[in-house]
Amino acid sequence: MSDKLRQAQFVEAYLRHRFQDRLDHFERSRKRYSRARTWTVALAAALFIAAAAAAAIGMADGPRRAMWAFVATTFAALGTAMSLYEATFGFRRLARESATTSVALQRLAVDGPTPDDVDDERLVAFVTEVESVLRYGR
């Protein structure tokens, strides 16, 4: 088996089984974290709106004002807990890091070797750059 053929097979296998697999992983992660952030922010906003509505009803309903104050406080506490959950897990940061890593991998793919056009120097440089991105990416 010639050296050129072995390099071409390695590039093909590396691109399919390592590179594309990791790229797909980072794309899925970006989407998952973005959706999680959207849902947590929307739920927190809905809970804060519900708290404001309960407080407004409490202002109009004098005899049951204490009950409405309790309901408003409960909704506000749940909204705060949801905001804290989102901030603690850092969905925005995780989505941004996954997107950054995905873009870096896509840029490397543009300049990377193909199975038909490969040499030792380009192959080593490409694998080194990809593994560096994967090591420090999320």
UniProtKB/TrEMBL annotation:
InterPro entries: SLATT_1 (IPR040884)
Domain SMODS and SLOG-associating 2TM effector: 14-134
Keywords attached to this entry: Membrane, Transmembrane, Transmembrane helix
Superkingdom of the organism of origin: Bacteria
Segments traversing the membrane: 38-60, 66-85
Name of this chain's protein: SLATT domain-containing protein
